[in-house]
Amino acid sequence: MTTESTHASASGTWKLGDLEINRIGFGAMRLPQNGAALRADAVSGDRDRAIGVLRKAIDLGVNHIDTATFYFSPLRSANELINSALGGPYPDDLVIATKVGPGRDLSGEWTAHAGPAQLRGQVEENLRQLGRDHLDVVNLRILGTDSVAERFGVLADLRQAGLIRHLGVSNVTPEQLAEARAIAPVVCVQNPYGIGMRPDQDEFVRFCGEQGIAFVPFYSIATTGREGGASGAESEEVLTVARAHGASAAQVRLAWTLHRGPHVLAIPGTGNPDHLVANVAAGTLRLTESELALLEGLHRRDA
């Protein structure tokens, strides 16, 4: 498949509230380091290369970037890289989504998830690092199945105060989504999901579409490799479809994600400019009914 001239708009568009974006976006988790992300001992990546990848993404039409303050390595911060590469001023159509809840200390070790009293500070730190006076989208990342009402209520207040434009939730159950929606509008759900990963989420994905809520899967390429990235091993089903299209396995996985519904967005992350080009090109990959059926069998094999 041709990649070099592909524009992110070829993937189609969706609105996060009143913000229209192309369905192929960019996840910033892999920018600050080489290799596995979110590790205290991560090897910091090349700054100029990371900035080049971000600017290339904009050139390719990517206008949805997903980030977080806890995306950092010893020498690099995803938010600072985004600010340096794209700020002053940011493109008018660029939507930056961030998330709050998790935290890491200065050594890179994980800390307890933020309670209600810490969330405003996390929002303000995102504003500072990104050089913004408001955040386009803030997702509340949840750990566990406890009530989200008090924490989401803090973000709803910050939205009313003008610091946040739209709210989302991440790593949540349908019950937690319902609880959040009773407090303020929710424009997106971010949950782990991909071929063979969390087939129990299928109904939740459909429900979000019915409600006009974007579903934004993370780890849709890496799946169980998570922050470590794709393992390199691949199923025969994915490889069969890839060969038929002259595509990579990663492109097939992204295309499958987009085929789950017009409300499903992709935020593949990479620090490699060639991988970025290939990821954006995956938005043009149209899978046949028989290919989708083959991949569906793989997806549900262990369900």
Gyration radius, in Å: 18 Å
Question: How far is the N terminus from the C terminus?
Answer: 32 Å
Question: Helix amount, in percent?
Answer: 25-40%
Q: What is the subunit organization of this protein? A: single chain
Give the biggest sheet. Answer: 7 strands, parallel
Note the overall shape. globular
Instruction: Please count the helical segments.
Output: 10
What does this structure look like?
- The chain is of the alpha/beta class.
- Helix 1 runs parallel beside helix 9 and helix 3 (about 115-130) packs across helix 4 (about 150-160).
- It is about 35% helix and about 15% strand.
- The longest helix is centred in the middle third of the chain and has 15 residues, at about 115-130.
- The radius of gyration is 18 Å and the shape is globular.
- The protein has ten helices and 13 strands.
Characteristic key phrases:
303 residues; alpha/beta; seven-stranded parallel β-sheet; two-stranded antiparallel ribbon; 10 helices; 35% helix
Give a short overview:
The chain is an alpha/beta fold and about 300 residues long. Helices cover about 35% and strands about 15% of the residues. It has helices spanning about 45-60, 80-85, 115-130, 150-160, 175-180, 200-210, 235-245, 250-260, 275-280, 290-300; strands spanning about 15, 20, 25, 35, 45, 65, 95-100, 105, 110, 135-140, 165-170, 190, 215.
List the helices and strands and how they pair.
Elements: E1 13-16, E2 19-22, E3 26-27, E4 33-34, E5 43-44, H1 47-59, E6 64-66, H2 78-86, E7 95-100, E8 103-104, E9 110-111, H3 116-130, E10 135-141, H4 149-160, E11 164-170, H5 174-181, E12 188-190, H6 202-210, E13 214-215, H7 236-245, H8 249-258, H9 273-281, H10 289-299
Parallel strand pairs: 3-6, 6-7, 7-10, 10-11, 11-12, 12-13
Antiparallel strand pairs: 1-2, 4-5, 8-9
Helix pairs in contact: 1-2, 1-9, 3-4, 7-8
